[in-house]
Write a structure and sequence with these properties.
The protein has one domain. By secondary structure, the chain is an all-alpha fold. The relative contact order is 0.13.
Length: 211
């Protein structure tokens, strides 16, 4: 039941569609512009750098707040032990589901990459460093944000599994470790599925570049 509550609480926080709401405040329905996505990249393209930064920070914050609440309620405020890390993952999944599939917008939201970044920041500095290098390197060299995002979620899964298996995470060696790997695998698979149209354009050479 605690896992279900974490997912539900995360979903509620994920419903705060920063890109859509910021666009409405400025007379723009971001779902009708650019790629039609309400995430950071489309906000950046459609409304500029300031909007992109605000949307990114808003999407980070909603996951952090959701995690802070569930960790406080169900683990005494301790995040970096085995139980805390598992609950953080379930809360994160819920937040991404709310962000990607908001019921009040006909389940048309973002792709969850900013929320994924928020979780990586909160979880482990080495995973963060590797994912950051991969994302920035990919985007700088190719100018494809979608490609960088896909590689980051794959790297997140690989790093989580490898570091956990070698005893470098709080959840390592606990009964929750394998379960956590399944959750992270689902997270990565969902992100890749949300980028399926981008993957098609990348293969066809027609994907939109950042600049």
């Amino acid at each position: 039941m605690v896992r279900i509550w974490c997912i539900l609480i995360g979903y509620v926080f994920g419903l705060f569609q920063t890109g859509y709401l910021y666009g409405k405040m400025n007379g723009v329905d971001i779902r009708q512009k650019g790629s039609g996505n309400s995430g950071t990249t489309n906000a950046l393209r459609v409304m500029g750098k300031k909007a992109g930064a605000i949307v990114f920070l808003g999407d980070l914050l909603k996951l952090w707040l959701a995690m802070a609440l569930t960790i406080f309620l169900f683990n005494g405020g301790v995040m970096h032990d085995a139980r805390g890390e598992l609950l953080a993952l379930y809360t994160g999944i819920g937040t991404v589901l709310g962000h990607n599939f908001p019921f009040y917008l006909n389940f048309k939201g973002g792709k969850g990459i900013a929320c994924t970044a928020a979780l990586i920041v909160a979880m482990d500095k080495w995973i963060l460093l590797v994912c950051l290098i991969i994302f920035l390197g990919t985007v700088i060299l190719s100018r494809y944000v979608s490609l960088g995002s896909i590689l980051v979620v794959i790297a997140f899964f690989v790093m989580w599994t490898a570091m956990g298996a070698t005893g470098h995470l709080a959840i390592s060696g606990s009964p929750y470790f394998v379960e956590s790997c399944v959750v992270v695998a689902f997270w990565a698979a969902m992100a890749i599925w949300r980028h399926r149209t981008n993957i098609g354009r990348l293969m066809a050479g027609t994907e939109n570049k950042l600049f």
